[in-house]
Amino acid sequence: MKLFASLTLITALATTAFAQSISIQAPVDGTTVQAGSSITVEVIQHSSTSDLVQVALAIGLGVPNSAPAIGGNILYNGPFNPQIQNTGIPTGQGPPTAILQNFTVTIPTSTPAGLMSLNVAHFDLTGAIKIPHAETVNITLNVV
């Protein structure tokens, strides 16, 4: 019985480890943004080797090096429904399509000038038995 439990745990961990993640495609790390302005956050869902059910996504703004915290300013909180889109990259120079979703968010006018962390938290269910999987990715923005 312990062998079966151990194998089940190993399978669950392996499925989670092989589940592909998200990344922030835009804005790029180090981008300068103005407090009060709107920006487009492009989130890419990397291809998955297992069944994947999207649950939710949150975008936040906080002080640098606060990950995995989302930050004090929640800019978006809701569904994540990435779609296959043309990347505009010429054939042979990169992937012609990507699974992504764009979010337009506003940098609060009260955001202090300086470096801030744009954080994206993602939650999905992975594999045949739908194992919960959560992750946080971030980039640094220079707010002026």
Description:
- It is a single chain.
- With 144 residues, the chain is mainly β.
- The protein has a single domain, classed as Sandwich (Immunoglobulin-like).
- The chain contains one helix and nine strands.
- A hairpin with a 4-residue loop joins strand 8 (114-126) and strand 9 (131-143).
- The longest helix has 17 residues, at 2-18.
- 18% of the residues are buried.
Helix and strand topology:
Elements: H1 2-18, E1 22-26, E2 32-33, E3 38-45, E4 52-62, E5 73-78, E6 83-86, E7 97-106, E8 114-126, E9 131-143
Parallel strand pairs: 2-9
Antiparallel strand pairs: 1-3, 3-7, 4-5, 4-8, 6-7, 8-9
- Count of the separate structural domains: 1
The helix fraction, in percent, is 10-25%
Most strands sheet: 5 strands, mixed
The overall average pLDDT, rounded, is: 85
Low-confidence segments: 3-19
Tally the helices: 1
Strand order of the largest sheet: 2-9-8-4-5
- Which range does the strand content fall in? over 45%
Structural class: mainly beta
CATH topology: Immunoglobulin-like
Give me the count of strands: 9
Specify the CATH class. Mainly Beta
- Oligomerization state: single chain
Mass-distribution shape: globular
Q: Radius of gyration in whole Å, from Cα?
A: 17 Å
H and E string: HEEEEEEEEE
CATH superfamily: Immunoglobulins
InterPro entries: Nis1 (IPR045469)
Signal peptide: 1-19
Keywords: Signal
List keywords for this structure.
signal; Nis1; 4-stranded antiparallel sheet; disordered N terminus; mainly beta; 9 strands; about 140 residues; Immunoglobulin-like; 5-stranded mixed sheet
